[in-house]
Specification:
single chain; 153 residues; Four Helix Bundle (Hemerythrin (Met), subunit A); 6 helices; 83% helix; elongated
């Protein structure tokens, strides 16, 4: 799933390189598109790095959440760029970006479910550890303290 997610996201890199938001601004678009284009390229790299980190340690909840959040941030920025591309540059490029995004929907849903399952598993592990710690404390509190020996002077 992570390899597919990363692969589909990477397909967008050359497409993002084709975007010319400075030209859009000359045609009346908001200057914000220029920043969004740069942000999308950065977020794409962060997403790929986060997915690689998660692939190396799939049981790490923080890495799973980071990957999910980075994907959500990238998708949000990309959505705006798709609309700008459609309006100010080339609807075919926008359609291509939308197509790759749609192909990644299944991976996004799998990642969301994985994060939920992983969080649930970690929560269960903590409950088991807490119960075991409580059992050990109770066991220790029932033990009689060792007899004190008097010191010779």
């Amino acid at each position: 799933m992570l390899a597919s997610l990363e692969s589909r996201a990477r397909q967008l890199a050359p497409v993002l390189d084709q975007l010319r938001p400075n030209d859009w601004v000359k045609r009346g678009a908001s200057q914000a598109y220029v920043g969004q284009c740069t942000t999308a390229k950065n977020e794409l790299n962060y997403l790929a790095g986060s997915a690689q980190t998660l692939a190396k340690d799939p049981e790490k909840l923080a890495a799973a959440i980071d990957t999910l959040f980075r994907m959500e941030a990238f998708d949000s920025t990309l959505g705006s760029l798709i609309e700008g591309t459609r309006r100010y540059q080339n609807p075919a490029i926008a359609d291509l970006m939308q197509s790759v995004t749609n192909e990644n929907d299944a991976n996004r849903e799998h990642l969301k479910q994985y994060v939920l399952d992983l969080a649930s598993d970690k929560e269960h592990e903590l409950q088991v550890m807490d119960a075991e710690a409580q059992r050990c404390r109770a066991s220790l509190s029932r033990q009689k303290p060792p007899a004190k020996t008097q010191e010779k002077r």
